[in-house]
Amino acid sequence: MLKITTSVGAQVVSALRYGRSPCYFALQCLGRLDSKSLLGPKRQSSTFLNNIVSDWCYSYHSVRYYAKNKDKKSNKGQKKVLIDENFLAEHFKFNTMKAEMEKAVVALKNNYIKNLSLRSSTGALDSLPVTFEGDEYVIQDLAQIVRKNPKTIILNMSSFPQAIPSVLESLKASGMNLNPQQEKTSIFIPIPKVTKEHRENLSKGAKALFFKTKDSIKELQNKNIKLLKDNDALATDLVHTLQDQITALADKYVLEAQRIMEEKQKELKGDS
Questions:
Q1: Of the chain's two ends, which shows fewer C-beta atoms within 10 Å, N or C?
Q2: How many CB atoms lie within 10 A of CB 139?
Q3: What are phi and psi of 36, to 5 degrees?
């Protein structure tokens, strides 16, 4: 039998004792280790080391194999939930919930148009809301909009001069960085230069409005799920099925709102 130094044998035993992976190194040394002073005089070093290495390496590789399978299982995607609207409508006010979720997405889109317009075009001003005498109008209901030149828009307020303060307030709060100037019954609106800072601020505003919409949709989801859970007449399995479908529907509207936000941010940032 070949002999190797006691220091090499000590390294192998140390690796085994402290949980490191000595398999490759130790197997090279099997049958060649003379370290009876470390392992004890009553047992041959090669037999003792062989038993330790065999048992340890088997355990080591078994654990790694199990972990690999576990990781693979955790990477599987979630099951796809099919939404049966007729089934949902049989058990709660589904149509009302759906209409409210749709309304939240539409409100987001309208908010973008009204408050996050990049350019002060006549088209953007047409639909700008104005609260006047307790009612809500759009500017085109109260003024004649004229584009004097590429840098100036004029609102002729001669038909409703009493609405001028309300229109001025709406213009300043539009989020379009406007600085309107009044001359008698006319309002002059210089079109501001679109700066990088202005684009970034509008983009942040778009994201904030999206999160507000997302919260309102999730609130509707949680509200209706709670009503189902509080209904003792419904079986637990049925409630779980309804809950999964309600959540899937809410996620669908959230994704739609996110798509609208991303398109708006792309427009605001000037991406092609």
A1: C
A2: 24
A3: -60, -25
- DSSP structural state of residue 106: H
* DSSP structure class, residue 135: E
Name residue, tokens 């539409």.
106
pTM of the model: 0.53
Cα 119 off chain centre by: 28
Rounded distance, CA 129 to CA 114, Å?
A: 7
| Residue 17: how many other CB atoms lie within 10 Å | 10
CB 33 within 8 A of CB 45: yes
Cα distances (angstroms) measured from residue 101 to each of 85, 200, 203, 212 = 14, 28, 23, 13
Residue type for position 144 = Q
What is the per-residue pLDDT across 46-89, written as a single tens digit (0 to 9) for each? 444 454 444 444 333 434 343 444 444 444 556 788 999 999 99
- CA 187/CA 156 separation, integer angstroms: 7
Amino acid at 271: D
In tens, the pLDDT along 201-242 reads: 788 888 999 999 999 999 999 999 999 999 999 999 999 999
Q: In whole angstroms, what is the distance from residue 216 CA to residue 195 CA?
A: 32
Per the CB < 8 A criterion, the answer to whether 117 and 171 are in contact is: no
Rg value, the chain, Cα: 36
CB atoms within 10 A of CB 214: 19
Tracing tokens 């990781």 back to the chain, one arrives at 71
Count of H helices and E strands in the chain? 11, 6
CA–CA separation, 164 and 75 (whole Å): 61
CA-nearest of 33, 31, 45, 36 to 8 is 33
Q: In the structure, what pLDDT confidence band is assigned to residue 30 with cuts at 50, 70 and 90?
A: very low
